[in-house]
Design brief:
The protein is of the alpha/beta class. The chain contains 13 helices and 14 strands. Strand 4, helix 7 (141-151) and strand 5 (154-158) form a beta-alpha-beta unit. Helix 4 packs parallel to helix 5 (89-96), helix 4 crosses helix 8 and helix 10 packs parallel to helix 13.
Length: 366
């Protein structure tokens, strides 16, 4: 029986093993492991890649969002509009500030936040709209930015799944006032450990985040405010520089995998990903929908195919958000019950893609 992993990072890294080894040796030989030249170089390179003035490396994606909210002064009594369908980190960043997440349902085609529902969620306490570019596809940002401008709100992108994705010709991370992203190993641009970054064109916010990530300090042993310890280390920055150099190539390969999946599954009884004409996704995930999702997942596992559910329990149904248990969020719950992510990676071979698609079709036929 054939075996198809969901994502084989060990295999993926073999193609860049030599430059990764060189990056490791370079940092080891330097003896500088925190806040050094590798971080400065990566921040400059990734800011340029995303089309923004500033990139500030931090410990992970959750902390990127949290520090951004802190930099904007978000705290108790404030509300932040978030998608009801997202990984829980989007909500947790809001909660860590003492603010309140206000969920808005997704567009059922794109699974991203439905901009037409945002205005109904705005109150006198709303300060921020935080759209997520889910599965590697940007949310519809123009109407979101228009709403924010009208109501005097801040737009912070959760771009953790969308490194390299574009919306009307502009890269994710440059589409709002600021953005937080994650370099968790499984991301399109993944470190070899935890890492994240803040992206912005705002000089003052960039400076505030730089201090917040480093104990609230700009000058050593002088602390202007209570900060945190959240720094992207030299080793991870060096690895990320290597992987940034192949990101576009790997994203294009992901696009080819997605196109083949879509052709092979065109007549299958599943809902395929929908791509609006204004976006160029990078296919962090290839997520289909089926009312028989759990049985399909079990069948594919029997055939040696690894799949993942993104996400089986929406944030408002999690034990840590008891106050949201009674919220009526049917779209988020429907997606939680129907979405299944098929294997997706730059190193997938055509034979593997055809095998996965054939087994999906076989299950649905019988």
């Amino acid at each position: 029986m054939k075996s198809v992993p969901f994502l084989d990072l060990g295999h993926l890294h073999q193609s860049i093993r030599e430059p990764l080894d060189a990056a490791y040796n370079r940092v080891m030989d330097s003896g500088w492991f925190i806040m050094g030249p590798e971080l400065e170089a990566f921040e400059s390179e990734f800011a340029n890649y995303c089309g923004v003035k500033h990139c500030i490396g931090v410990g992970n994606g959750l902390e990127a969002l949290h520090l951004l909210l802190r930099a904007y002064g978000i705290g108790p009594g404030d509300e932040v509009i978030v998608p009801s369908n997202t990984f829980i980190a989007t909500w947790l960043a809001v909660t860590e500030c003492g603010a309140t997440p206000v969920p808005v349902e997704p567009n059922i085609e794109t699974h991203n936040i439905d901009s037409s529902l945002i205005c109904d969620a705005i109150t006198s306490r709303t300060r921020v709209i935080m759209p997520v570019h889910l599965y590697g596809q940007p949310a519809d940002m123009d109407p979101i930015n228009e709403i924010a401008k009208k109501h005097g709100l801040i737009v912070i992108e959760d771009a953790a799944q969308a490194q390299g994705a574009s919306y009307k010709g502009r890269r994710a991370g440059s589409l709002g006032h600021a953005a937080g992203t994650s370099f968790y190993p499984g991301k399109n641009l993944g470190a070899l450990g935890d890492a994240g970054a803040v992206l912005t064109n705002d000089d003052a916010i960039a400076e505030k985040v730089k201090q917040l990530r480093n104990y609230g300090s700009k000058i050593k042993y002088q602390h202007d405010f209570t900060g945190y310890n959240s720094r992207l280390d030299e080793m991870q920055a060096a690895f990320l520089r290597v992987k940034l150099s192949v990101l576009d190539k790997w994203n294009e390969r992901r696009n080819e995998v997605a196109e083949l999946y879509s052709r092979l599954l065109a007549n299958a009884d599943v809902v395929l990903p929908y791509v609006p004409e204004y976006t160029k996704p990078v296919w962090h995930l290839y997520a289909i929908r089926s009312k028989q999702r759990d049985a399909l997942k079990a069948y594919l596992e029997q055939q040696g195919i690894a799949t993942v559910i993104h996400y089986p329990v929406p944030p408002h149904r999690q034990a840590c958000y008891q106050d949201f248990q009674e919220r009526n969020l049917p779209n988020a719950e429907m997606l939680a019950n129907e979405v299944l992510s098929l294997p997706m990676s730059p190193q997938m071979q055509v034979a593997d893609i055809k095998y996965v698609a054939s087994k999906v079709v076989d299950f649905l036929k019988h």
